[in-house]
């Protein structure tokens, strides 16, 4: 289970080219994907820092924090900063990504209270040494076929009074003005629609896939937890943006072109190709109006029994 930041993700969450790194696909070279996932997660750090400040008021001084679907460990290491008295365990299906997470913890000086656990979710959580005070599932749940059963398994690994923080939903990210100055206005909205179709197919094809109404507080309640809050966090990197943000936008649009580009009409494909041409001054590599605006929602619930 790996974050595609992006967003999972993130980071705005989905990767049609690779059927999204949250799910364990043997055709994905995780060592190759690792640096990209790490860079994207770093870009979203302001959003995660706001989310963690909010969580810290809900679950004070946890002893064990578990990041479910941690990817290369950027978020897990942020938890180590947020909760200096906690042990952090990064859980993922990819050993190469967890190796990056461990190396990151060592670089940041938190390796003495940082561990990793490799295996398929949710069953691998049975290998935790003791229950979690805070379990974070950041855009990883939707890559498990039976989300209701997975939430019940997550809940079972919490201490009495422990919190499950579920990051799902939000709004599609935006990077470009509606009217680009060429092509038909509204390209990103049409890409969103294709990505939503891809996502529905991805969900349907997961092993043991079960259709659920995505009422997350209701599903958390069904897992035996008491919902305690919902909040949406914003990443707002306005134009003119940084080189790192620009590179993220280019990488994201490239994955979309590779994943759903064939479903675009000829005009939109030509527009997308132009946006990704580094030799074109109207591309995202050069244009001054590129930005990153993303909204991601976190739901919290507490184990009371």
UniProtKB/TrEMBL annotation:
Q: Which UniProt keywords apply?
A: Methyltransferase, Transferase
Could you give a GO molecular-function term held by this entry? methyltransferase activity
GO process terms (BP): methylation
Q: Which Gene3D superfamilies match?
A: Vaccinia Virus protein VP39 (3.40.50.150)
Domain of life of the source? Bacteria
Ranges for domain Methyltransferase type: 66-164
Q: State the residue spans of region: Disordered.
A: 1-28
State the name under which the record lists this protein: SAM-dependent methyltransferase
Instruction: Give the organism, scientific name.
Output: Streptomyces caeruleatus
């Amino acid at each position: 289970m790996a974050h595609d930041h992006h967003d999972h993700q993130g980071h705005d969450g989905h990767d049609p080219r690779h059927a999204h790194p949250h799910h364990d696909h043997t055709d994905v070279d995780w060592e190759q994907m690792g640096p990209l996932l790490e860079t994207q997660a770093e870009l979203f750090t302001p959003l995660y820092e706001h989310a963690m400040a909010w969580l810290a008021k809900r679950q004070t001084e946890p002893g064990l924090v578990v990041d479910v679907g941690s990817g290369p460990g950027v978020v897990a290491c942020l938890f180590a900063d947020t909760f200096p008295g906690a042990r952090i365990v990064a859980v993922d299906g990819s050993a190469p990504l967890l190796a990056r997470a461990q190396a990151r913890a060592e670089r940041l000086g938190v390796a003495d209270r940082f561990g990793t656990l490799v295996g398929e979710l949710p069953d691998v959580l049975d290998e935790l040494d003791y229950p979690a005070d805070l379990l974070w599932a950041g855009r990883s749940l939707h890559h498990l076929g039976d989300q209701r059963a997975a939430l019940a398994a997550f809940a079972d690994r919490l201490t009495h009074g422990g919190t499950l923080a579920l990051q799902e939903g939000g709004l599609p990210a935006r990077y470009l003005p509606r009217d680009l100055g060429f092509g038909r206005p509204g390209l990103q909205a049409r890409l969103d629609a294709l990505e939503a179709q891809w996502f529905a197919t991805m969900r349907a094809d997961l092993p043991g896939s079960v259709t659920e109404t995505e009422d997350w507080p209701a599903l958390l309640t069904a897992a035996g937890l008491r919902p305690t809050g919902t909040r949406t966090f914003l990443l707002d990197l306005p134009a003119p943006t940084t080189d790192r943000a620009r590179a993220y936008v280019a990488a994201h649009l490239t994955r979309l072109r590779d994943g759903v580009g064939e479903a675009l009409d000829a005009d939109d494909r030509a527009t997308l190709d132009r946006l990704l041409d580094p030799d074109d001054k109207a591309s995202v590599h050069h244009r001054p109006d590129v930005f990153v605006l993303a909204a991601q929602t976190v739901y919290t619930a507490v184990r009371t029994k």
